[in-house]
Amino acid sequence: MARGPSGRLVVDVDPEFKKQLHSALAAEGLSFKDWLLRQSRAFLAEHAQPSLPALRAYEPDVSLALVADEPATYGAKPAASRKSQQP
């Protein structure tokens, strides 16, 4: 794609691809220019302030779980052992 000082963008694409793109955009009620500007602005906004894809796609691994034999009793005295309870 050539770069020049004008506001024009000139891109050579496969004619069938161009036809399919314009058809799909027309079905959405969009012109190619409107779609290109919308996509370009979204791209530039993402480029200026990248999101955190690792956090956006974060799903906790539910296969990891902390399992205890007995519930924790914070601040409580430990239970007497069975040996000390026998006569």
Summary of the model, kept short:
The chain has helices at 15-27, 32-48, 53-56, 82-85. The chain has 87 residues and is mainly alpha-helical.
Could you list some keywords that capture this structure?
single chain, 87 residues, mainly alpha, 4 helices, 44% helix
Helix-strand sequence: HHHH
Helical content class = 40-55%
Structural class: mainly alpha
The number of helical runs is: 4
- What's the gyration radius in Å? 32 Å
Strand runs, count: 0
Shape category: elongated
Strand content: under 5%
Distance between the termini: 93 Å
Biggest β-sheet strands, sense, barrel: none
Give start-end ranges of low-pLDDT stretches: none
Averaging pLDDT over every residue, what do you get?
75
Written overview of the protein:
It contains four helices and no strands. It has a domain at 11-51. The model has no long low-confidence stretch (mean pLDDT 75). It is 44% helix and 0% strand.
Topology diagram in text:
Layout: H1 15-27, H2 32-48, H3 53-56, H4 82-85
